[in-house]
Structure formats: C-alpha cells, structure tokens
Amino acid sequence: MACKGFGRECFDTTAYVTFQDNAGMAGVFEGSLDPSHLLDAIAVETDIRPNEGTLVIFHEIQKCPRAITSLKMVQEQVPDSMIVAACSLLGIALHQSTSFPVGKADHLSLHPLSFGEFLLAPGLDKLADLLERQDVSLVDSFSEKLTDALRGYYYVGGMPEAVSIFAESGDFEAVRRVQENLLFA
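Given the sequence above, the corresponding structure tokens read:
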C-alpha cells in the first residue's frame, strides 16, 4: 500500500489499522469516540502507541462510519496526531448519512500513473524523457524498448501499489495479487 510506504519514509513509526473484516476495531468505534480511548485501542491492535512521530493509517475506513466521525474529535483534541484515512469513494458514497469532519480533513484524489510516470518507477527515466521531448527519430530508434515497457504497463496498469511491486521485484504474480486485492477488497 502506498500509505505504508509513505509512513516508512516520513515517520518514525506507522500504526496500520484495517477495517476490512476487523470486527474488533469496528466495535471500538461503536463506543466512546474519546481520542485517548481510541489511541489506546490502536496501541492494542498494532502494538504501536501513537505519538508525535507516528502515522496512523485507517485502511478501508468506509467500512466503519464512526471512525470517519471520530476524525474531527481526534484532530481537535490531539492536533499533533497524523492520520491517513484510506478508502474507496464508492464506500463513502454508500455511507452518505455519515457525519464527515468538514474542514478537518484534506481530500487527496489519487489517479493511476500515466505511462510516462510508470517508466520512472523502475528507473527508465531516459525513456520517459525521450517520450516527453517527443523526439520522433529517437522514439523510433528505441521502439522495441518502449514497446516492451508498454506491454508491462498494459499488464501492471497504473495503480501505485502494483507499479511499486513491479518496480521492486518485476514479479507479475505479486502484481496480480495486488490487483486482485484492489478489485475484490
């Protein structure tokens, strides 16, 4: 998941909480939304006590509408807390009656990577530059390399996690597992 990578790179620790098939954590949010209570529950769930250097990731938050509601209280009472709430827009649309922390949450829409961005992930920067400059004679000279990269892009697609796995390992089976998780989660 791209959020986990962000957490590893930019924070001391990352506490990852998924609401996918996690009745225990969903149950926590059915009770008190007091931030200290919630931080205690996150510590029990993840073995990480959230503090100033911790990123908390709520994955599939749309499956627990009260977790969405809690974001405002946490931000107001523990302003140094850093929480990423990852979800599908479809899930949010299905929970339109849920209280949303207006003015307390920033939205970040992620889009699939373009072919040029895809080329950058495995270090094919020169090919990406070639396409960007639109140097037709050089593009023609390296059409075989570009065609191979395009085939990879057609299979892997532009979802950041799948591209990251492909760039790190080149393992198409691992890429397929990521794609299936995205499709069927």
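The chain has two domains: 2-94, 115-184. Try to locate this feature in the token string yourself.
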